Amino acid sequence: MKITHWAGLLLAVTFLAGCYTEPVEIPEETVGLAPVYSDGDWKTIESQPPQPIIELNKIYYKDSLIFVGEAQKGIHIIDNRNPAEPERIAFISIQGNSDISIKGNLLYANNLADLVVLNISDINNVELVSRVEGAFPQSGATLPQGYFGFFECPDPALGTIVGWTEKTLQSPECWR
Amino acid sequence: MTKISTFILALLAFFVLSCAEDSADISAAASSGTGVGGSLARFTIIGDYLYTVDNTTLATFDISAPEAPEKIDETVVTRGVETIFPLKDHLLLGTQNGMYIYRVSDNGLPAYVSEYQHVVSCDPVVANQNYAYVTLRVSECREAAAGAANTLDVIDISNIESPNLVNSLSLDGPYGLGLDGNVLFVCEGSNGLRVFNLDDPESPEEIRYLNDINAIDVIPLGGTLLVVGTDALIQLDYTDINNIQVISVMSIGA
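Structure tokens for the assembled complex are given below, as produced in the milestone run.
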């Protein structure tokens, strides 16, 4: 969607909101949604060498491994057999990922709007077991239906929006 | 404290943990059970079913055949569903207007049991069989209602059909929380981490306040606490609750 549409929407919302409620105050920092832009084939999931943690999301623990979510990008695997010296040992790239859960050797994750099941018995060579397409319709490419709040204004220069993800926003200029 | 004694302490903590954890060899087959997430988690597995929350909806996936998982249910809960906490065969959902409780039947399908309503704010939940602990945050919470406050609410769920607020403590701006026996950890973001004693489960008593760390969510692992902040992943040894020690700090950032 072109940015002018957002501007129009913004304008309309501002006027509408002005009729019924207090004008929206833009917070310095708030949790809202941010677009996820396509980065090549977003369905590609693979083990990669360890990478620095840039933006910590959520963590999950199993069998002396800490799974650290890198917001929107994937999961860092940390060997925590020695908690005094936790060591990054791999990174699993999963576009648009925010949540995981693990049972046995199987890791369940959201890959944008899809649910994916990964076999992680070899952490350096994870394998896609299955994929449920469109399992999370609210993570689809348009702003989620029913979402009202702040979001990061889309920038068409960054590519196609393939989903939305929760993010801490600084003075967001888009909302609905 | 000298570096040597820190090292010895860390070593000690490592050995203590090694005893508790008999699955130390990563290359060996992982345990068949599930792992553990933080209080901000939105996925959880009970038996052969994966439950996910997604803004308004609780979805159920049958994962008995992992090569072909199937979405078997979608339940609209309310607006602003944020977290999911498994408690045996119940799911406790933290939403922006309250805590919703669902019971999971043998066929995996969730059925509404009850809810505890509060003013609109942001609120993860943890619980044991008798009490649920909910943090409510106003700051950095979209849509927080006027009159909302930063609190730790104690809710009696011994009758799960009828949750009952028994106490509400004032906090700075709480995020995630973690429960281990009679110890409750509450994250206060840049304001640090609070540790409460729950000898009287209805009146959490603050016994420690670590104000020099950034804490968003925690996972207690029976003596070791994983603390997620915006700037680091910190591990604390709380085997002696009166003498909590830093085991390691993994910094975040390139």
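Chain B touches chain A through 64 residues (CB under 8 Å). DSSP finds one helix and 19 strands in chain B. Further analysis is deferred to the final report.
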